[in-house]
Amino acid sequence: MSRLERDMATAAPERLPKVPVPPLKQTLDTYLKCVRHLVKDEQFQKTKAIVEKFGAPGGIGEVLQKKLLERREKTENWVYDYWLEDMYLSNRLALPVNSSPAMVFPKQPFKDGKDALSYAARLIRGVLEYKALIDARALPVEFARGQLAGTPLCMEQYSRLFTSYRYPGPKRDTLKVRVNPGTAASEHIIVACKNQFFALDVVTESKPLSETEIFSQLEKIVSMAGNAEEQCPPFGILTSDDRTEWARARDVLTKEQINMDSLVLIETCLSVLCLDEPSGTKATDSNRALQMLHGSGWEKNGANRWYDKSMQFVVGMDGICGVVCEHSAFEGVVLVQCSEYLTKHIARTTLEPAKPASGRKLPAPRRLVWKCNPQVQGLLVASKERLQRLVNNLDMDVFTFKDYGKEFIKKQKMSPDAFVQVALQLAFFKCNGKLVSTYESASIRRFRDGRVDNIRSATVEALAFVKCMTDERTTYTESEKMKRLRDAINAQTDYTIAAITGMAIDNHLLGLLKSAKELNMERPEIFCDETYLASNQFILSTSQVPTTVEMFCCYGPVVPNGYGACYNPQPDHMVFCVSSFWESTQTSSAVFVKALNEGLLEIRDLCDAVAKMADGRQGGSKPYRSGT
Ligand code: COA
User: Fold this and answer.
1) Nearest-CA neighbor of 162 among 298, 398, 332, 338?
2) Which of 354, 459, 425 is nearest to 602 (CA)?
3) Going by CA atoms, what residue is nearest to atom 36 of ligand 1?
């Protein structure tokens, strides 16, 4: 058996363990511990009584737990559908900013449009190669790194990268995954250019197009897109709207067969390629992130998108490039692996000027045509206004902290991820004088079809640490501060280990709630409680998305008064993408970034001071040797 075959066998989904259902008492105790210091005393006492009643012998908790354990037996992954629906499909908010993260690729030095098309052609060629690896199940199996390193990870998410589509629905969306399209004799992508959409066959008669062929097809598309007489209204804008609005608009559109035909082509494509007009802004990291997340609205590239499709590659004529992803099918880490493959593929050789196309006769790219009526016109205008509000609202600050990176943290014998989480808590406390419910995504890919659970980073130990770092009335010694820092980091690390081994509380509580619904019970009191509702408002929504090549991930906040904080720790620096909404008077990305920078420096100074003291003690206790 080859190494690859062995690896594949090890991580075949059916071989991986099933996600466990944690013991009920353990989850309820952890829940109380997580919220104790985040709510008022009186409220906590009320919550404690409700939780105790729920978990009492013979109580509702036991009934629901039993149901979950049965579900675990019967299904591959008991939490998968519950989680997918709760996290994504029932969420009615617009996909851009609120749900779809983006990877920002290195800025490209395009000299002209031809350069941009060469890059795009190479990118699409890379997509075809990567998809062939996925279809052949030839991607090397990944193994966990960091905490509890070495176990194989579930690879299922990769199979959804180019085969999924999120259909809008009036109450909930549907994620559809095409089964085994790898054997199809023809495959197409959708190219968006000047808000027009084109179907481009990239595999014909079972043969993928070469880079040169894709380039020549893209040139044709650019020329077709410029033809003013054939311009259709910018229908892509509808996909940027709230999901219920888009579902309604889609119902109207599908009344016409011509629209239905265009939709089917989009819904069955491998991916969307957005050839963007120059953004007209300076290509700072923050502006590039904004361009990826929302395309800067209707008048720029905001309608040159189709948000339901899982992978939308953006190639801007000004060299701003990246990928926007519809998140329900896979996690950011999978997006990173794919993006890194593609950027390495592009960088393998320098971009060549276009060569003449091969002799093969290729089907011409097809413009997608739409039938519009006054009702649809009205819907387009409404979607345009709502997207513009989102664009105006997003406050994004991409900050590269250059004073140290994860190597310094490892030297302190601390987990870099836990360290960053504690630093984010310190930053939040500096800005608000309190801690709030915090989400950190933790991968549960060690399990069959595993997605994520939540590390609740606003621990009581983190609160003790941030208080001692900011308390102006009491003077804490460096050793006292250091002890609290270590306690906070240990608590965070312990929670991380619990989460990645399937023992966190969020998925479990969700499962109990959904079980009650399935049993037609009234919503149990524990889930109506103010504390539970507040604890699910993640004012700080964080995620580590590390990369090994120069690129970064970004996303928006998940609540109106919240922050999104995506970070990418590198050996000697760390990139933070902090987002919030201008409309909230409680947040400011720049203020948060300033506090984060300050906090990271203060923690470093604390570590250095304590190390110096330890060195001094060691020096002082060294035995004296004559002659030295
Ligand atoms: N002393 C020295 N080094 C340490 C250490 C310590 N006490 N603790 C950890 N390290 C090292 C690790 O060995 C690892 O080394 P490596 O860089 O050589 O691999 C490195 O520090 C990083 O470990 P750590 O910072 O503890 O984090 P992690 O890699 O285990 O990551 C999570 C923690 C929660 C981010 C990770 O488990 C996870 O779930 N990632 C996925 C998140 C996700 O899904 N994001 C996308 C959402 S869309």
Assistant:
1) 338
2) 425
3) 442
CB 493 within 8 A of CB 3: no
Distance CA 452, CA 466 (A): 27
Residue owning the nearest CA to atom 19 of ligand 1: 146
| pLDDT tens figures, 116-160 | 999 999 999 999 999 999 999 999 999 999 999 999 999 999 999
pLDDT band, residue 617 (cuts 50/70/90) = confident
**Ligand 1 center to 569 CA (angstroms):** 10
Which of 143, 334, 544 for a ligand 1 pocket mutation test, highest count of atoms within 8 Å of Cβ? Answer: 544
For residue 438, what are the β-bridge partners? Answer: 540
Q: Which of the residues 327, 345, 508, 573 is marked catalytic?
A: 327
- Is 327 marked active-site? yes
Tokens found for residue 275 = 């050839």
Token readout for 21 is 């259902």
> By the 8 A CB rule, do 450 and 456 touch?
no
Residue 441: strand pairing partners: 454
Mean pLDDT, residues 598-609: 97
**Which protein residue has the closest C-alpha to ligand 1 atom 8?**
415
Give the DSSP per-residue string, 223-275: HHHT-GGGPPP-GGGGGGS-HHHHHHHHHHHTTSHHHHHHHHHHHT-S-EEEE
* Among candidate residues 389, 432, 302, the one with its CA nearest the CA of residue 582: 389
Separation of CA 116 and ligand 1 centre (Å): 36
For 336-351, the pLDDT digits (tens) are 999 999 999 998 865 5
Mutate to test the pocket of ligand 1, among 417, 421, 496, 541 (most ligand atoms within 8 A of CB): 417
* Mean pLDDT of all residues belonging to the chain: 93
Q: DSSP letters along 9-68, please? A: HHH-GGGSPPPPPPPHHHHHHHHHHHHTTTS-HHHHHHHHHHHHHHHSTTSHHHHHHHHH
Find the 247 Cα to ligand 1 centroid distance in Å: 40
- Hey, whose CA ends up nearest to atom 9 of ligand 1? 415
Which ligand 1 atom minimizes the distance to the CA of 331?
48
Taking CB atoms and a 6 Å cutoff, what residues make up the pocket around ligand 1? 145-147, 331-333, 410, 413-417, 441-443, 452, 496, 500, 543-545
For atom 14 of ligand 1, the residue with the nearest CA is 146
Q: Give residue 182's pLDDT.
A: 61
Cβ-based neighbour number of residue 160 at 10 Å? 17
Task: Return all residues near 46 (Cβ < 8 A) that are at least 6 apart.
Answer: 529, 531
Ligand 1 centroid to Cα of residue 79, in Å, is 24
- Exposed e or buried b for every residue in 219-234, given b needs 16+ CB within 10 A? bebbebbeeeeeeeeb
pLDDT band of 244, cuts 50, 70, 90: very high
At 576 the three-state DSSP class reads strand
Model confidence at 21, pLDDT cuts 50, 70, 90, reads very high
How deeply is 267 buried, as exposed, middle or buried, from its count of CB atoms within 10 A (0-12, 13-18, 19+)?
middle
Q: Which pLDDT belongs to residue 265?
A: 97
Give me ligand 1 centre to Cα 505, in Å: 20
Whether the Cβ atoms of residue 392 and residue 411 lie closer than 8 Å to each other: no
